[in-house]
Amino acid sequence: MTANQFFDQLLLDIQVDDDELSDARDKRDALARLCCRVMGENLGGSCEHVAVGALAQGTQIQPLNDVDLAIVFGSKGNGWDEDPEKALRQTAGWIHEALRSSEDFNVSSVEASSHAVKIEFDDQTFSADVVPAFNPLLSTGLSIPHCPKNDPSDRRWIATDPAGHRDMVKDRNRETSSKFARQIRILKWWNRYKKLQDQDERKPVSSFHLTALALSILDGPISHAEATAHFFEQASAKVLSPIPTPSGVGDPLEAKDPVYA
User: How many CB atoms lie within 10 A of CB 181?
Assistant: First the structure.
């Protein structure tokens, strides 16, 4: 087996079934409509949803663990500016109440996490992360809650640009004749494999960081054997220092343990 044959087989092994992808998109879009309706009712204004994450980028690998979307509101709730955790908690409560009264969803749990409302389904193997977000005036990107469970003193609103990040991945994919998204899948598989090998189950880097590194390193339609080697050669040096986010919005990206990464 040649290197390129190996990568071709790996991509077949880790791809998500088309029917499963279609079902996940349908569930995500139906959830987005419900969230926009219920949040608009509770906040007294209109809102829109933005599909983000691996499913929206076309970089998802098997197993499909979650679907991601941001619900962008026109105005924040009372007290949300000073308390982003309150925004997550109230959003989770409103969404949970709407889901329980809906015949279209079988939900086992709805909980606020560090940045999103995490929804677990009884009839799906994947979960959904719904991020409450605002578009600051005259700025690029979104403002989202940052509420780490292990550090309540660091609760704040942070800038991010998930839609811009998604579009950069899709644009690079078109420029490379669809090779870029497939290369990201290979790198995500490696990242997960290293996590499974580590006794503390550490990923070398987050999926967002991994994709940002790839955007900064890979810009041509070269073979997967060449691209993989080139990525690791460059990323092994880049990962030792913070790197800017792909769109320039938000804090620089840094591995939790740069030396391990």
Answer: 18
Angle at 145 between CA 188 and CA 38, to 5 degrees: 100
In angstroms, rounded to a whole number, what is the distance separating the alpha carbons of residues 260 and 71?
Answer: 35
The tokens for 13 are 């092994």
Q: 3-class DSSP state for residue 32?
A: helix
- Estimate the crossing angle of helix 84-100 against helix 18-43, to 10 degrees: 110
Residue 51: CA count within 13 A, CB half-sphere: 16
- Can you tell me which residue has the tokens 């955007």? 215
Residue type present at position 132: P
Tens-digit pLDDT profile for residues 196-227: 999 999 999 999 999 999 999 998 888 999 99
Report d(CA 205, CA 162) in Å as an integer: 18
Cβ 126 vs Cβ 67: under 8 Å: yes
Q: For the chain, how many residues are written? A: 261
